[in-house]
Amino acid sequence: MENTNQIKEMVKQKYSEIALQDKETNQSSCCGAGGCSTEVYNIMSDDYSTLEGYNPEADLGLGCGLPTQYAKIEKGNTVIDLGSGAGNDCFVARKEAGEDGRVIGIDFTPAMIEKAKANAQKLGYSNVEFRQGDIENMPVSANTADVIVSNCVLNLVPDKDAVFKDIYRVLKPGGHFSISDVVLKGELPENIKKDAEMYAGCVSGAIQKDEYLSLIQKNGFSNITIQKEKPIHIPDDILNKILNARELAIYKEGNIGIFSITVYAEKPKSCGCEPGCCS
């Protein structure tokens, strides 16, 4: 990946394609990035179908967790979903926030915004809206959200520090987030890091787990908690396309791991007057 703009353009192109694919195709792929596996099953995502508010047409099978299940959303809350896709987490969050709540989905892919708006219109939801924009510079005023959720999206963004800074800005004092994301333990083979399919597939954009948690702490959040953690197993037919025999053997030795984690953290109720805190 040569620079941030190239990465973002590649992700936008891939997710524009994903918006037009059916769920089965997305589930059999690298986190939806393309039909790169012959094994048709969820590589990363968890089953949403038992959650109230779930809408099958909004579920593209792109997630790596169930952040809304852990997000402690209360009636009347304002909830923001980062990388809202076709609206799946937004509609689950709406059920939790109720008629008096408000849900804002943010996605930088126009095709996803169009799909999400169409789904909301079909469902007749007047308190769910979708805005196009970057999640490291959200089209939202400071101190707006009670809760922020996101499902397997921050790993697609090159500047993750900027995302956490903007989450802090947008949360109300005392607000919190629950984010599912992909993290690493140990160093991935270089070919995985460079592969565009795997980047759009949420893997090679991931960073080390310790670094990820450190970014959250560095940006002023408190009560940082891992709510769920699970290993991600990438099928051999995907790995064989990008790794030679030696690299594959090293990868499978067990010292390297790809994990989905769901992380909870809070913006303190009272803080110094840094940008986004007291404004």
CATH superfamily: Vaccinia Virus protein VP39
Q: How many domains? A: 1
Would you identify the regions where 5 or more consecutive residues have pLDDT less than 50?
Answer: 26-42
The Cα radius of gyration reads 18 Å
| Number of E-type strands | 8
Derived from helix and strand composition plus strand pairing, the structural class reads: alpha/beta
CATH class type: Alpha Beta
Terminus-to-terminus distance: 37 Å
SS strand fraction: 15-25%
CATH architecture: 3-Layer(aba) Sandwich
The secondary-structure element order is HHHEHEHEEHEHHEHEHHE
Number of helices: 11
Stated plainly, the CATH topology is called Rossmann fold
Relative helix content: 25-40%
Biggest sheet descriptor: 8 strands, mixed
Q: Name the shape in a single word.
A: globular
Average pLDDT confidence is: 82
